[in-house]
Amino acid sequence: MAAPDLIVQNAGELLTLGGPPGPRLGAGMRELGLVTGGAVAAVGERIVAAGPEGEVLSAFPPSADTVVLDAAGAVVTPGLVDPHTHAVFARTREGEFALRVEGKSYEEIAEAGGGIRSSVRSLRAASSDDLLARGRATLDAMLAHGTTTAEVKSGYGLELEAEVKTLEVVRELAKTHAIDVAPTFLGAHEFPDEWRDDRDGYVSLVVDTMMPAVAAAGLARFCDVFCEEGVFTVDQSRAVLEAGLRVGLGAKLHADELHASGGAELAAELGAVSADHLVCASDEGIRALARSGVVAVLLPGTTLSLGKTAFAPARKMIDEGVAVALATDCNPGSSMTESMQIILSLASMMLRMTPAEAMTAATVNAACAVALGDEVGSLGVGKLCDLVIWEVDDHRAIPYHYGVNLVRAVVKRGRVVS
Ligand code: NIG
Ligand code: FE
Question: What does pTM read for this prediction?
């Protein structure tokens, strides 16, 4: 048996999140697989043992070459998974934030040419090098806050060339950054200025030209659409996502964020991997998500940043048996944060998710929201050795103590990276 390359020992609370494949549902979201006095052993990138320290160390005694990390009684969890980000953009939009604070709504700013379309203008003008440098800095911040896997969307190009430019930057980040990146094509994020008078024409461009080109170049694993009043209708969204499914891209939706738009129902109908936002999802939409096993990705940072007070109905979803996950929605318009920690806090404070449910939603369920549940999101034998050693000795302190970085160390694929 190979000697371990890495041992993490003396974990006061080791949260393995172990269990059967697939997301945790209902009361299962409170099962953290908590081991008091735990350890993890890895050979290369993968976990070979995780559990009570005595068992792990006797099965995998360290050699002189083993890197041994002493957690000193702290909490150890899987690396956090952020399954919804727009982390590649050219410029921040703090001016719009200030306008919102003064009372302008997100929709008013968008109608006046700001919002996503302002990010489109700056991204089209930006060089790939600039996008890469900014994207790398964003991912660095995510990693420092405990995120080891992230989904990243395009959607600020809205023309073939600029969407491909974005996804090539995402691919370069995936290759060179410690964070594992799941790429999503979001050509249907908004109607660009030049197509606003021919919206079906733009949908055809996405369906007939952009989607096949992106898929043929292997630039995305998922496709996404902003299904919302004033943006893509349910029928337009269906056309986009079906085109993605035809070329092998899993479906994701920005669904029911600002109005009940039928997005959750559409996600269920198409067997989407996830439906995201869902602040205004209907009762029938929630039941449909539960029936179809679509993961609901909730983004409370967006609600907070937009200055709204109605958060997604997380409790109802959990009670109905929906697989609930959490994400930052990291983007320059509606949620400028790289930190899943503040999202865990908001989940407990505003969505009334227990600390255990929030941790499940940010690890194993978030991994399922990017179809990576077999690889990441839990600390089981054979999984990638992605984990966080925290500054706290009780996992409930992670959402409780907010606004500071509680990460002590991050291990990605068996290596200490932060
Ligand atoms: O998820 N809702 C649409 N898209 C983003 C916002 C993007 C932006 O404003 O730049 C979101 O909130
Ligand atoms: Fe988003």
Answer: 0.98
Distance 74 CA to ligand 1 centre (A): 36
Q: Do residues 39 and 95 share a domain?
A: no
Atom of ligand 1 nearest to the CA of 335: 12
Residues in the chain, total: 418
CA 268 – ligand 1 centroid, Å: 22
pLDDT in tens, 188-228: 999 999 999 999 999 999 999 999 999 999 999 999 999 99
- The model's pLDDT over 6-24, given as tens digits with 9 standing for 90+, comes to 999 999 999 999 999 999 9
Of all ligands present, the nearest one to the C-alpha of 335 is: 1
On whether both 52 and 87 belong to a single domain, the answer is no
- What does the buried/exposed string (b/e) look like for 88-121 if buried means 16 or more CB atoms within 10 Å of the residue's CB? bbbbebeebbebbeeeeebeebbeeebbbbbbbe
- Quick one: 68 and 191 in the same domain? no
- Is 399 found in the same domain as 266? no
Query: Which residues lie across from 276 on neighbouring strands?
Result: 254, 297
In the chain, the number of structural domains is 2
Could you tell me if the CB of 86 is within 6 A of ligand 1? yes
Ligand 1 contacts CB of residue 184 (under 6 A):
no
Same domain, yes or no: 292 and 401: no
